[in-house]
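Researcher: Here's a chain I'd like modeled. Treat it as a single chain, no partners, no ligands.
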Amino acid sequence: MKKILFSFLSLLLLLSTLKCQVNKTWSEITGSAFLENRSYEAFRNICDMAGGRLIGSEANEKAMQILTGELKSLGISARSESFKVPGWFRGDDEIRITNPLNRKLQAIALGYVNSHPAFAAGVAYAGFGFDEDYSRIDVNNKIALVTSEAPKGKEPLLRYEAIDIASRHGAKAILFICEHPGMYNLAGTGNFQGTNTPVPAYSLTYEEGMWLKRLVTEGKNPEVKITTNSYCREVETANIIFSLPGKVKDKIVIGAHFDSWDISQGAVDNGQGSAILLDVARLMNTFSADNYYSIDFVWFNGEELGLWGSKKYAEMHSAEPIAAMINMDMTGSPRGFNCMGFDEFKGFFENLKNSLNGFDLSSGVASVPYTNSDHIPFMFKGIPAFSVMGHLDEESVKYYHTSGDDFDKVNKKQLSEASAVVSIMLHELANYTRLSEGHKNSRQMADLFRKFHLDERLKRQKEWIYNN
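Model: Modeled as a single isolated chain. Structure tokens:
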């Protein structure tokens, strides 16, 4: 009996020891994420010293130098991987109302709007910008004014569609009214293909856009002069990569886009995700350097103009075995996990969520893919993609793609929380030997996108790669 009791106690001790060993890495990661946070100061330096990081710009190059220097100071040797893509440079553009009075408007060009001779034209209000909206007005050789608000009971047009429709109806330009009051301009790209927009496209503030609309609807016949000096040109830029070798060549790619729009510091979109990735790289390099899978930490460039960095990485590394991809775009305080339609991993993430009871992961585990971020080029190749569902403060979300997205909106505590949870998730995935079994073929991926009604959006964006 004593022998049995001794054996039982020994087993309990062993299990207790194993449990402590399993959680030791988690504890070290979590403690360092909060007590030794490096992401906050590193990205304050980038935001304040470089500013907005539009791909191909001097600010983008300077920010990359600062980032690689920060990584080097952490003992992390990162490399740059160059590529060429269609670039776009903002010039000294001007939108000026010339009738019934003369005043410069607060407006910004959308990406891939190219320079042209200045011109003046009348303005026609085209509602939501659908074909049927143009059937009620004469916009030929005029400037189309459209709202960015969503129509009731109808899928709104994508920006690229609205530009093409305006061009087809003979408009000389299109002006988008921002849907949010507060004198904001909403930055965005004219298309995801890197081609010149068929007509100049600009974002107006809500207030000035509504003023123009009133002038049109009241028959005051406003006239606007457009001067565009922005231009398109091929650029050579780079992704920044830190590789952590594993026991096998199969690897996990964890990425965050490093670039941002130029009208702000790009702090939350996506300085925040990039900052978290820096701390995740530090934490993994320090506390989880020996894993089953290899890991590539990638700061993607050119996401805002068309996912260029992730597209190029996926293309340049297509011969390498990639087990999974983790995307961090505007990552906030973790509230749960998203396995993006790869339902076979829901059990893994449920177990992980239940084990992290010190964090508020009340949103649970979702399995809902979405488009227009850096995981999509990997999903096109059938690679499982995951993300953390996070909470961002209202002030952080409010200034998305506007001039207000500056460092003062960044929450240091959220950076630490996200760095801890993402690092633990990555540590567990990097040692989950069945991870590489989740790949899907082209037919399965097409079915997955259809299941979540993303096929139509991808087709509308001219990004659908499947035959069926």
